[in-house]
Amino acid sequence: MMNAMINLSRRSVTVLCGLLASLSLVPGTAHTAAALTVAQALADAPAADWRSPAPEQTVVMTLPGGRQVLIELAPGFAPRHTRQIAQLVHAGWYDGLAIARVNDNYVTQWGDADATRALPEGQARTQPAEFFLPALPAGAHWLELPGPDSFARHTGLVDGWPAARNRPGGPVWLAHCYGMVGAGRDNAADSGSVTELYAVIGHSPRQLDRNVTLVGRVLQGIEHLAALPRGTAAMGFYATPAERTPLLTVRLLADLPAQQRPDLQVLRTDSPGYARWLAAKRERREDWFVEPGGHIDLCNALPPVRQRPAVLP
Q1: What is the pLDDT of residues 26-45, one digit of tens each?
Q2: What residue ranges do the domains of the chain occupy?
């Protein structure tokens, strides 16, 4: 526990130094605060400030036309749900299912909409709720965001995931930001099922926090879910099966041949590069901005994602 606290302290100091550097309080930085832009902050982030998602926790969903949606799972917050998702993906269970609901400014939902596909032996149809963690796990990195939030007293990033809590040391939960992925459920809290998943495609519905189990985040391809025709039946469901978009294949990145794996990287939220990017986004310095906002809310602080740069010979 003491080592974990020391490591957490060291990471926090590193992030703080990056933030101070972005504000030109540390000499020798590439840009001054007056000139630093979001694009420059990203360009300045060294390779060590980026991480690669774990292939066994990254889902690649292929839609017609070769469109791909890449989802990183969050086992640290929803271990039961994400374990089952990975098992079902590995078994090919989602292949041939469909996107059955696109609710404008809300969610896109996919899976076994008619509840007709049998689950593999030993797989349960529902899972106990994983709405929050009783406390932050030892060794996890919490980066507090300054400023008010409408739904929690404290918001921040936990190892890159948007999270909230009402007091340090108390329960912590994931937030329903744009691109976050959750497991649908009925009225009962423990009726959540990975047979019906959804992604947020509208203004962050934070009222769902601590009411639905969030299982991950779309890292790439959210536009393929957000640009689909809206459903015209109740709650944005498609009125007929013919309107649905089929899921051609759903694979774990680990199960794809190396040459077919999209090579994405996520900016680490415990890095100086993220601190500089966050500061630049809080105080927009691009020529277009007349008045910097001086604030950033939780869902605008999600870490950037990029393709791994090519290595020159």
Answers
A1: 333 444 445 689 999 999 99
A2: 2-51+266-307, 55-133+171-262
